From TrEMBL:
Keywords: Glutamine amidotransferase, Transferase. Residues 9-310 form the Glutamine amidotransferase type-2 domain. It comes from the Bacteria. The keyword Transferase applies. InterPro entries: GATase_2_dom (IPR017932), Ntn_hydrolases_N (IPR029055), PRTase-like (IPR029057), PRTase_dom (IPR000836). It comes from Aquirufa regiilacus. This is Amidophosphoribosyltransferase. PANTHER family: AMIDOPHOSPHORIBOSYLTRANSFERASE. It holds the Pfam family GATase_6.
């Protein structure tokens, strides 16, 4: 994407199912799990750049030894920073292990017990998280995994998630009404405290059951063997409204990953005899464990994958499912495009745009050059070119069938290829020099480089595909002017995603209406057509509904867009982003929602395009977001 919508988060969980000695013997390193975790995290840095964190639990430790380790970082290269520290620790430990051998004769280097007794991060359960915050600042305290500690092993909880709750304020109030005094309002803490509260209760319940049968020191193991995590999740998550893939590790080594009932946020898992792993993206699992794609399963929405202390696994329902609406933005943009399904879907998105594009260039392929915004739009671009080839094949077939061609015409018809050029490349280095003064816009325009001399001036049209257009600022401030320097007759900007009209509230940090160029277009059209009273009407409805607690029943903001066709909004967007001195004609083509649903049939969550929120809390957020806009308040609406 030429302008980034803010990313979300990524999770990675590994459970080593065999004794630690197995990995030490087989892979000849005490860092087998850590190395895999590192890989899974590096393969998901696309999901969050604010910070990262890892935590580790050792399952069999004597009282008095540490069994939870954690590192977090908000450095620019957070994952490398964390693993750099861990590696340093292990280098030191290797040395210590060799010294131990020399001094005592014990072969510490190859002894799992030695490693687990002496070195942190040698536990069997490993959790990694990449963060792009939707709540709270980008600070180390807000980085996951978060800890809820207790002297009872089975009451400890370590949590991380890719999530956003629409009702986190209500959840917080509930904690207070339970008599708690939370030390923070950060959403991860709130969610963890909620789950932690019911974990405590479950501990108490089991304690009550067994306290007469066992001596207290034995109870720790008895509790661990009997805690019912499904029950804990059922009780704690029932009033969550949001999108989530929440990972929890307990102090005794059992872990879980709970996925929201509409399957909004992604979560995949793989297991074999050695490991159980969970990640936000299939590709991270595939590359890290070299398994086959069909061995990687999706966690069923409304279900939790529970990995018991003994390494056994079950996938259990913990909340009633609602209509599945998995986030389509994962497919369009967020997730890595090297996942074969996502790659195919992105190509299809490009291909489905062909009829609209041909209309824009009046079928004149001889004078049209196709290109793309580098990186993320590449697959959609390839699909678009496939679509053009199909279109040409059809034309050839028709002409041949009609049989009215002269030899030179036939020659031309058979040899014609779509004109594909790389017109724009990204010059990443320029970014670091961007200053916050009057030079900024000029500097921004140099983040991209253009290729000259491939466009026939004032004759050719340029079709440029991007994966989405949120604010339109990069188009306005750099891309359009750059393209215009090539002097095309017309510029057609194509978005492989539909118009972004509504905020997200399920994990993507995109919550302010004013930021969306589609919203600005609707505002401009309302003004032009003397329909501005609609703004006040919607505002009143939203405010009333928010006041009397019915705001989650309906998305009133849809009325803002209702008077206009998609085309009218697209045309207005083109006007808004058009730099004043642009010579070329400009139009913008957006994917239709119907075609998006065709291209990504298993990811029908499209609330940011349609306003159809999958949970009631979504309506509440969009209504509030609108009221905030009208009041001129620039805060997140959840
Ligand atoms: N994008 C996310 O999933 C963010 C997780 C969580 N809401 C946070 O802000 O830390």
């Amino acid at each position: 994407m030429s302008e980034s919508i803010k990313h979300e988060c990524g999770i990675a969980l590994i459970r080593l199912r065999k004794p630690f000695q197995h990995y030490l013997d087989k892979y000849n390193t005490p860092m087998y799990g850590l190395n895999k975790l590192y890989l899974m995290m590096e393969k998901q840095v696309n999901r969050g750049q604010d910070g990262a964190g890892v935590a580790n639990i050792k399952i069999n430790v004597k009282p008095g030894s540490r069994y939870i380790s954690r590192y977090r970082s908000v450095e620019p290269q957070a994952v490398a920073d964390i693993f750099g520290k861990i590696n340093k620790k292990f280098r030191k430990a290797q040395k210590l292990a060799k010294d131990t051998k020399r001094e005592t004769g014990i072969d510490a280097v190859h002894d799992a017990a030695w490693w687990q007794d002496n070195v942190a991060f040698t536990g069997e359960v490993l959790l990694g998280h990449l963060r792009y915050g939707t709540h709270g600042q980008n600070e180390i305290e807000n980085c996951h995994p978060m800890l809820r500690q207790n002297n009872w092993r089975s009451r400890n909880l370590v949590m991380a998630g890719n999530f956003n709750m629409t009702n986190v304020d209500d959840l917080f109030d509930k904690l207070v009404s339970l008599g708690q005094h939370p030390k923070e309002k950060v959403d991860t803490v709130t969610v963890m405290e909620k789950i932690g509260h019911f974990l405590d209760e479950e501990n108490q319940r089991q304690f009550g059951k067994f306290k007469d049968q066992y001596e207290n020191p034995e109870l720790s193991d008895v509790l661990a063997a009997n805690i019912d995590l499904k029950r804990v999740l059922e009780r704690s998550c029932k009033d969550f409204d949001g999108g989530y893939a929440m990972v929890g590790m307990t102090g005794y080594g059992a872990s879980f990953v709970a996925r929201d009932p509409a399957g909004i946020r992604p979560a995949y898992y793989y297991m074999d005899e050695e490991v159980v792993v969970v990640a936000s993206e299939k590709q991270a699992i595939k590359t890290s464990f070299n398994c086959a794609y069909d061995q990687i399963q999706e966690i069923t929405p409304g279900h939790a994958l529970i990995i018991a202390m003994d390494g056994s696994v079950e996938e259990v329902p913990f909340i009633d499912r609602i209509e599945q609406k998995s986030c389509s933005f994962e497919r369009i943009y967020f997730s890595r495009g090297s996942d074969p399904d996502i790659y195919r879907e992105r190509k299809k998105l490009g291909r489905l745009l062909i009829p609209q594009i041909l209309d824009e260039v009046k079928q004149d392929l001889k004078h049209t050059v196709f290109s793309y915004i580098p990186n993320t739009a590449e697959s959609a671009f390839l699909g678009m070119i496939d679509g053009l080839e199909d279109h040409l094949a059809k034309e050839r077939k028709q002409a041949i069938m009609e049989g009215i061609l002269f030899e030179d015409q036939l020659e031309e018809l058979l040899t014609f290829r779509p004109r594909v050029e790389k017109l724009i490349s990204k010059d990443v280095k320029v970014r670091t020099f961007i200053a916050s003064d009057a030079m900024r816009d000029d500097m921004v325009s140099h983040v991209y480089d253009t290729t000259y001399e491939v466009i026939e001036k004032n004759v050719d049209s340029v079709v440029l595909i991007d994966d989405s257009i949120v604010r339109g600022t990069t188009l306005e401030k750099s891309i359009l002017s750059l393209l215009d320097k090539l002097s095309p007759k017309k510029i057609v900007i194509v978005s492989s995603a539909p118009q972004i009209r509504y905020p997200d509230c399920y994990g993507i940090d995109m919550s302010k209406m004013k930021e969306f160029v589609a919203f600005r277009a609707a505002l401009a059209l309302l003004k032009e057509r003397n329909l501005e009273h609609i703004l006040d009407e919607v505002n009143l409805k939203c405010m009333l509904a928010l006041e009397n607690g019915t705001a989650s029943q309906e998305n009133f903001v849809k009325a803002i867009y209702a008077p206009f066709t998609d085309q009218e909004i697209s045309d207005k967007i083109a006007e808004i982003v058009k730099p004043k001195n642009l010579q070329a004609e400009l139009s913008i083509v957006y994917q239709t929602v119907e075609n998006l649903n065709i291209a990504c049939p298993n990811h029908l969550g499209d609330w940011y395009f349609t306003g159809n929120f999958p949970t009631p809390g979504g309506n509440q957020v969009v209504n509030k977001s609108f009221v905030n806009f009208m009041k001129g308040i620039e805060v997140r609406a959840y």
